[in-house]
Amino acid sequence: ELRGKLRILQTDSSEVTALFMELSAHLIAIDSEESIFLLTFKTFEEIWKFTTYYTIGFLGLCLENLLLEQKFWLRSLEDDVSVEVSVEEETLNLMYRGILMQEGTPPSGSAESLHLKLKHGAEAGQGLRLLTNTQHTHLSVRETTPLINQISFLCSAGGTCEATEEYDAEGPDELSLAPGDRIIIVGLLVSCFDWFTGRKEVTGEVGLVKTSVVKPSDDIYETQLFLQRLKSQLSPVSLLPGGRREQQHGELRSLFSCLESQDYRAEFGVLYGLSSEAIVSSAFSGHSGEAELMAFLGAARETARKKRLFWSQTRLCFLLGKLCAGRSKFSQARVYFEEALGVPREGFTDLRLLASIYSNLAAIYLLQNNSQSFFAVTERLVALLLGVSDCLESLEDDSALKYMLKKAVLSHNTKAEARACHLLVVPYLERLLHLSSHSYLTLGRLYSQLRLPHLSISSARITSVQPSATLTDCLSSMLLALDNINRLCNSTEQETSIPTQVAPYLHQALTSTRVLQPGSEQHYVLIHQLTVCLCQLFCKHRMVGHAIHHMHTLINNRQLLSSAPERNITLIRLAWLHINNNQPQVALEILDLLLDSMPEHCTTPQEGTCVVLNLRGVALRCMGDLRRAAESYEAAVDICQEYEDMANWAVAQANLGLLSLRGGAKRLAQSHLVEAVQLFSELDDEGHEENFISVLLELGQLYVRQQQMDYGKGCYEWALLLAIKANLLACQLTATTHLIRLYCSESQDQVQCLIYSQHQVHLLRRSGDRGEEGGALVAVSRLYLSLGTDRAYRAALDHTKTSLGIFIDLGCREKEALGWLQAGNIYHLLEQTELVEVYVQVAQDVALSSGDTGFILKLLEAAGDIFFNSSRDRDKAIPFYRDRALPIAVRSSSVSCRLRLCNKLSELMLSLQMFEEGVEFAQTALDISITLGDCLNQRVAYYRLASLYHRLDQYELAEHHYLKTLTLCPTPLLFDEETLYYVRVYQTLGDIIFYDLKDPFDAAGYYHLALAAAMDLGNKRAQLQLCTRLATIYHNFLIDRELSLFFYQKARAFAAELNVRRVNISPDQQQCSSSAAQ
C-alpha cells in the first residue's frame, strides 16, 4: 500500500516536492521499489534547517501526513503506529563539512545528495534511513512548483483615516487623494514610516498612501493580528514554453493571454518566486539556453509595448530583470525593474508583483550602495508588508525586515518593532526548539502565517502530545492543524466535513478532560461535542464499533447528559450506530425505551418523536418485520404532518416508499417517493441534500424498471444537479453512475453515455480514488472503440494509456498487462503494425511476472484474439493459441480453455487453408466436447471436421461428419436459423454426393431434404437453387421428364419472382456453379 502511494508520487511529485521545499531540501527523485527519496541541499542554511526539523521530529510527522491513508489516524488511536526517521551522523557531518568548504560559491555538480529510505509497518520503530550518494541531479522546478492557496492575512486595523491635502500619484502603485477623502487602512498605519497601504472608501482602489498627507479618524484602533481565509479554486500553473522561430507569433499570442491580467492569480505567485535558473529550466522550456530565452522575452516585451499590453509588458520586464540579476548584470536588471514600475496603467492591483519588484530593486540598490534609492523603495515595500502579509512570499532576503526593525526601534514604535521581530524570529525559534521543548504552538502559528502548512501541522501535533499539554493547548493545536489541513487538501467538499487527521487531537483533548475535575456546564458540552465529532469520523470510515464504544462511554457518564433532550439525542445517535453496525435488535430496544420515556402528547416536533419513529421503522425493516415498520413510519408521518415538520415528514414518506418497494408494491412505492420528493423540494434550509438525492435516485430506478425512461432520466439528472450544487462528490459519482447505466443499457445513447463517463472520470480524479479512475478510463476507451472511426480509436488509445499509467503506479499487474494488450489492439485497428507486437510482448511479460497461471492463459488467448478477430494478419494468432496458450492449458488441466483454443485453431486453419493441421485440433475439440457432454460444441466440432475433410477431398468422411452434425441438432426446431442450417448442410451433402462422388440418386435425396427445409423457411432464393439442381439431375441423369419439368417450372417461377434472367439446367453449368459455391 505504501509502495503504491510512492508510485503515485513518483508520477506526480509536486506534492512531495512542496513538502521537502518546506523542509529546506530539494527532491531529485523517488525510487518507489526501494522506498527511497533522493534529496540534495544547496546551502549551509538548508541542511542546518533540515537537521533541525529532523531532530525535533517534524520530518516523520510531515511524511505521515503525506504518505499514510485516512484510516491510519483512526487506527493510531489504539495502536502505536508512527513513522520514525534515523540518520547517519557521519554522513551528515560530511555534508556539513563539504557545504561549509563551498560557502560563498554556487553548489557544484559534485555536491553530495541524500537518500531517505522509507519503511512503514504496523509498529513503531520502522521508518526512514538516510544514505548518501555522490551523484547529483539538478532540481526540476516544473516538478517542485507548489500550488499556493489564495489566502490573505490581513493585519488588524478596522479604522479609517482622512486626507488632509491634495496629492497626485506619481506612479500606478500610489493613490491620488483630494482633501477630505476617506481611506480605509489595510493593515497597520505606522507613523514612523513614509507610506502605508490604503483603500479608497468610495472607489475601492488599493495602493500606497503617504503617511504625511492623512490624519487619523476617530475610529482608528489597533488590535492583535487576526486571520481571514479566502478560499478559491486554483488552476495548475501553465506557463507556455518557447519554441522555434516559425512558431514565435503563436507563442507570443499565447504568452500575452497568460500574462495580460491586471489582478493577481495563484500561478503568478509561483512565477514571482522562481529563481532565474528555474525560469530557464522549467517555466519556459524549449529554448537552447538562457541567451535565447532572453532574446525571446525581449522580443515579447517590445511587442507588448507596441500593442500597449501594459500588464504583459510589466511582467516580462520583471522576468527579464530576474534573469539579468541571475547573471549578475545588476544595472541592466535595475533598468528592467524600474521600467516595470513605470509602465503606464491605471493602477497596480497585483500587489504581490509590486512587492516582488520592490524587493528585487531593494536588493540591487543595496548591492550598488545606492542608499537613497534603497531607503525610498524599502519604505514602500514595508508599507506593503504591514498591509498585506502575502507579500512576505515576495521577499528576496530579509534586508527590508531588518530596515523595518531598525527604524521601528529608532522611532520607539513598539507595534512595528513587534511586527518585524515576529517575522524575523522564525529560524531562531526553530533552533530554540532543538534545545527546548516549549513554544511549539507559537512556532506552528508562525509557520501558518508563512504558508508552511506541513510544518505548522507538525508543530501542532507535537504540542498536543507534550506531557505538559493542557486542554487549552490540545484545542488550540487542533484548530491550528485543522486550518492547515484544509489548506493542504484544498477540498471542495462541504465545510462541515472533518478530516481524519484531527482524530488524534480529539482523542487527546478527551483524555485531557478526564483528568480534570468536574466543572461547569460548558465543560460537559465540550466533552459531548468532542465525542460526537470523533464518532462521526469513525462512522464515516466504517469503524462503527469504535464509535459505539465512545458513545457508550459518553452515555455512562450521567453528569455529561444532564438535560433530557441532550440525553435523547445521544441515545438516538447510538441507535443509528447500532443499525449501521448490523445490530437492528439492539437499536430497536434503545428506541423503544426512548419512546416509552417521551411524553404521551408531544408539544413540539423538536422532542424527537418523529426521528425515533423513523429510526424504529428502519430497525424493524432491517429485521424483516415489514408490517410493524410500516406502522412506525405511518405514526411518524402523522406526527410530522400535525406539526408541519417537513424534513422528517419527507424522510418518513421516503422510508415508506422504500418499504413498499421491498414488499413489491410498486405503485404505492412510487406514490410515497413522489410525495417525499415534493416535500424535500419545498425545504428552504440546507443539510437535507443527501437524503433528497437518495430519494431521487430510488425513484429514478423505479421509473426505469417500469420503462418510463424520461422520468427516470429526469430524476437522475435532478439528483446530479443537486449534488453539484451542494458539493457532494460521493453523491455526484452515484448519480453519474446511474446515468451511465441508463444510457449504456436501458436507453442506449452512445454520445450521452460517453459524456457522463468522461464526467465520472473527472469526479474520480477529484476524489483521489486512482483505482476507480483507472477502471472508468478503461470504460471510456471501450466506448470510443465502439464508434469505429480512426479519430475515436485515437481517443480510446489516449484513455487507455492514461489508465495504463495509473495501473503501473498502483502496482496492479493484471490490469497493467490488460492495458498494454488493449493499447496493442488499438494500434492494430489503426494499422500501426510495428507497434502492435511491442505492446503485446510487454503485456505478455507483465502477465508472466504475475505468476498467475489462469491470468497468463487468459491474456495469451486475448492476445491471439487481436489477430483472430481481424481481417489482417490472422496467421499471427496461431503462435499465441498453439505454441503458448495451449501447452499451459494442457499442463494446468484447464479443459474449457483447451476446448476454446482448439475450436479457434480449427476455424483459423480452415480459413487459412491449413487443412491437415486443422483436422488435428478439430478432432481434439470433438473429443473434449464428447467428454464434457457439450452437445453444441460437438455440433461445431463435427461441422468443422466435415468442412476440413471436404477440402481435403475425403468425401466419405465429410459426409459422415455432416450427418453426425445433423443428428445433434435439437428437435423440434426453435429458430429460423436452425432451419437455414439444415438447408445449407443438406445442400452441401447433395453437392458432395452429386459432383464429387457422382451419385445423382443419393444427391437428389439430400436436395429434396434441403428443399423441404427451404420451403419451411420460405427462402425463395434457396428454393430456386435447389429446384434448378433437381431439374438438372432428373433431366440429365435420372431421366425423369415429369419431375424434371416440374422442378424446372418451379425454378422458372422463382427466377421470375426474383428477377433472375435465365435458368440453366446444363450439367456443366451446374458443376461450375457448385465449384464456385464451394
TrEMBL record:
SUPFAM superfamilies: SH3-domain, TPR-like. Keywords: SH3 domain, TPR repeat. The keyword Calcium does not apply. TPR repeats lie at residues 939-972. PANTHER family: SH3 DOMAIN AND TETRATRICOPEPTIDE REPEAT-CONTAINING PROTEIN 1, SH3 DOMAIN AND TETRATRICOPEPTIDE REPEATS CONTAINING PROTEIN. Residues 156-219 form the SH3 domain. This is SH3 domain and tetratricopeptide repeats 1. The keyword Membrane does not apply. It comes from Labrus bergylta. It comes from the Eukaryota. Gene3D superfamilies: SH3 Domains, Tetratricopeptide repeat domain.
